Records
---
Amino acid sequence: MKKNVFFLLIFTFIMAVSANVYGQSAATGTLARVNEARQRAIDFESHGYFPSEWENLEEKYGNISRGQQTAAVYNNLADEYDALFRKAVPLYAQAWEDDIISTRYFLFGTDFITNFPELLDKVDEIALIAMTQYNAGDYYTARNTAQKALNEYESLLTGVGVFMLRQEIIDRGFDLYDRVNYTNAEEVAQKAINEYYNGNSQEAVNLAEEAILRYNVLLSNGWIVYSHSRQSSAAQERELAMGERAQIASRETFRAAETLHLRAEELFTAENFNESAILFIEAEAMYAISRQETEARRLRALEAIRQAEEKITESSETAIEAERIIEGGIR
């Protein structure tokens, strides 16, 4: 009897241990599911969109290590993480869509895209693929494709920067100041476009950035030459104005020109050539206006003198005629 009891106790102990091991194994399996669900929620920023709900789940997650937990506890927590994930996904997707649309909208109105519309079409195809993947519930793949599309749109922004710099240089005529370096910059910019057509986006961006550096050097040097030429023109106009004594005849306008000219010289000395050039142009214009005002006043003065002389002549003729009448009457 004692022997049977002994074996019964051993059997019970073995079964208890086995049950404990099984319970731990089952719990570990569902804990893995919790961790997977939690990671999905993190990947799609559930914590940012629903902070209070996230904190509640995180508190539960922190408590599961205390004491023995059942598979049901883990499953419930995993379900809650999954539910929060599903709530966050549309918001997360909308944020991506907003970034893509705003970047594309900026690109759409640029001269660069007007000249190379097929580049935008190429990236649009990637964005549409991302949308298709999202609608199919393949969220991770959709996210990666959307990231690729956004990267490509931003690569085109570098192209916009190249095109805008190039256009400013041409519009201002700065390309004529240094034809050799301008030609070199043009070659690099064309290589960037070719690389992008060939699917080498990163190399295209690298070349575009090099082109930007080259164009910026041209633009800076162009402003130096241009500012120097405007400085000379303003000085010449000032001499002409002073030669016509505009500083006296058109004192206020001339003083305004002097103020602009002095500030332009200060900026030129400080090597702020683009702003100094603009002020030299304004000063030159004000000097020219002071000359025009001086000339207008001179013409008005001459006209007044002419009219006065006419009146004097008329008065003199009237006096002579009166004298003749008087003399005739005496006779």
---
Amino acid sequence: MRQVLIIGREGFMRDMIAAAAAGAGVESVCTDNPERFCGECLRGRFERVLILGCSTLADGRISVERLRARGSRRPEIYVISWHHSEHAVLSLLECGVNQYMTLPLNLRRLCRKLQQTIGPTQP
């Protein structure tokens, strides 16, 4: 079963998004250590990677290429952040991020996006 990986340093935000996703029937894994899950991303375990904040990509701790197999578009990567600057958003999109969402976050919209492509978990 494919899952959503939620990466972020702020535990409350990770847990809030994971709870909303669970309520929508989408299974998620939360971490503040993205390096631990790079291999599993490459093997296709995660359908989506939600990165909370730009710093994980900006400080070089992880790159889009490390999350995807060469030539693959899986997993899709969403960045969720407070930054509204056009330069920051364009830079992330040019690096290969699929979508940039600004805070405050519309959890219903995010969960609909997850359900459309992943589908609810089966009992």
---
Amino acid sequence: MAETESKTGEKSPREDRRPAHASGGFYESFHQTDLGQIILGDSLSVLADYTSHSVDLIMTSPPFGLVRKKDYGNVEANEYLEWFKPFAAAFKRVLKKNGSLVIDIGGAWNKGYPTRNLYHFKLLVMLCEEFGFHLAQDFYWWNPSKLPTPAEWVTVRRIRTKDAINTVWWLSPNPWPRACNRRVLQPYSPSMKDLLEKGYKAKKRPSGHDISDKFSINNGAAIPPNLIAIPNTESNSYYLRYCEEKGLKPHPARYPAELPEYFIRMLSDSNDLVVDPFAGSCVTGEVCERLNRKWACIEILRDYCEAALGRFERDIGESAKSRINHDNPANYYRVPRPGILWKNETVDPLPEDGGKTRPNR
């Protein structure tokens, strides 16, 4: 997107406004760096001007199909598929044949019932069956710091467990997207380190798997599972301090930087183009700046673009200096085995109505 010159002769990317092809509106380059830009406008309009098969990775978290309306705009779950269809077509057109589409999307509960809505699973099926995407792998982002919600079903009626994961769909226009898991390896577990130190006798396990002597080779790190543990506990970040100092409203639904970084590392190379069509606070762009990827963050609300400037008005490399120390036990999240507290004792009988009657406090 070309820059224009202001009356003072200085380049002013915010004056670069182009007519939209998809929605009849306009969009503008709100902020630019050497690697990318924040674009204010509707992503359908912006993507309509992209050359076909020009994007390496779409990394995004669209508005969820929630029951309650949010400030950033979201469609109800039962309307979600129709709303998403034009985006799906646009994503398929601009992605390279060996590129990837990564969608972080949370589930929803049916209004007034302790049952789950299936909209995000229906979205996955639609993307594959109607738009020709291939599901490369499904991931699950576990937030260890998640509060026990929804409170009505979890802490009041005690008939459900807390909802602490988002699904992350990794899709591609063909079955062979570019990828390398060596870029997202994790430290060995204590038990694996012990096995490597003491040695391992190759044998067939009770499950029937034949473990060869290659299992005891020290490769330096472990291949991660498709469960990603990242607490979403941002409370005093530079972004939030910037918003407070400027009197700006921060985006209320930010994913932690480690989530897009995981996929940007695994699915793109330096100088590849990464696009986030639902950019929000533009954390995807901040990660791309640090990892030397070209990027475009598209956000439809000006207030969120204004707040996102806080991610780029400092040395991006500073955040890299505080990378997680893998020797610190506090950076590991443990999941207790289900039976730790199980006892052979009599408990209250299950409610015959499944918890439909609200208990008295």
---
Amino acid sequence: MDYYSAFPFYMGYQGYGQWAQPGIVPEDRILEDLEYLQQMYPTYARKYQSAISSIVDKMDYDGSFLYDQYPDKLTIQRMVESVMVIIKTNEKEPVIETMSEKTMQDIVEQNRLTNNPTEHTLTENAPWMEKEPWIRELVTVLMYYEILMRRRRKNKQSLTQAAGNWHYPM
């Protein structure tokens, strides 16, 4: 047997396995994986994602800035701001803000005695001013992700349409 003409061990099974060669993995498979992982988002991220996709739907048309090579950052920030307005209007009034001052002091005292410091933690009942920066950052990242996914889908559609219109010269 000629050992010098054989493939090295790392080249013997090209294309073996799901992610063996990144160039060979079909884009459909990658998009399926991304959509599956998107379904596993936490509850609030999924809720925000629906508001984000409704805003991006309004901006998704032929010739939209979303499909420019370099989308306008200011316009994306305005879209994030409109999502934040929707989230803030849908946000229920926190329970802690509606409590009386005496009840708040009792809760703080009980937490101090039980060594459970929850007065400064970020929870569902935290005031909007504490949560807003974190929610804004999450919404911004989800907005960029949504735009990226739409750009990929549009690019894929345009490639398949171009391939369908291709004619061989005679």
